[in-house]
Amino acid sequence: QVQLQESGPGLVKPSQTLSLTCTVSGGSITTSYYYWNWIRQPPGKGLEWMGAIAWDGSTYYSPSLKSRTSISRDTSKNQFSLQLSSVTPEDAAVYHCARAADLRAASDGTYDYWGQGTQVTVSS
User: For 81-123, what is each residue's pLDDT tens digit?
Assistant: First the structure.
C-alpha cells in the first residue's frame, strides 16, 4: 500500500519560506499517471488544494497561491517538496501530501492516499 509522510519545521516566522517534504513508500512518484499533491486545512476552514507535481515532473498550482508556491521532486529519494514563500499567520494550517489519479479530481479534493498531515505554525 502507498504511504506518504510529511516532514519539515513546524514553526515558520512571518515573511519566511515554509518548506515541507513528502516521502513516498510503496509506490514510485514517477509511475504513470499519478499526481502528487499538497493540500492544507487552516483551523476552522475547509481543505485547500495548493498544487501538484505529475509523474513526468510537470507542475500545477492553485491560481490563488501560484505566485508564491513551488513544488519540486527528488526522484532518487522518492520525495516531493513544497515551498511557500512570504508566509503570514493566515498560512498556519495542517499540511497534507496526497496522491491522485486525475488532476481535476485532485483540485476538487479527491485523492487515493493521504499523509497524516503536519501542523505548521506561523509566529514571530
Answer: 999 999 999 999 999 999 999 999 999 999 999 999 999 999 9
Strand 118-122 to 11-12 pairing: parallel
Lookup result for grid cell 512570504:
86
Nearest one of 115, 99, 96 to 27, comparing CA atoms: 99
SS3 annotation, the chain: CCEEEEECCCEECCCCCEEEEEEEECCCCCCCCCEEEEEEECCCCCCEEEEEEECCCCEEECCCCHHHEEEEEECCCCEEEEEECCCCHHHCEEEEEEEECCHHHHHHCCCCEECCCEEEEECC
**Cell output for 8:** 519539515
- In angstroms, how far is the first alpha carbon of the chain from the final one? 39
| 74/45 Cα distance (integer angstroms) | 31
- Name 39's bridge partners: 49, 96
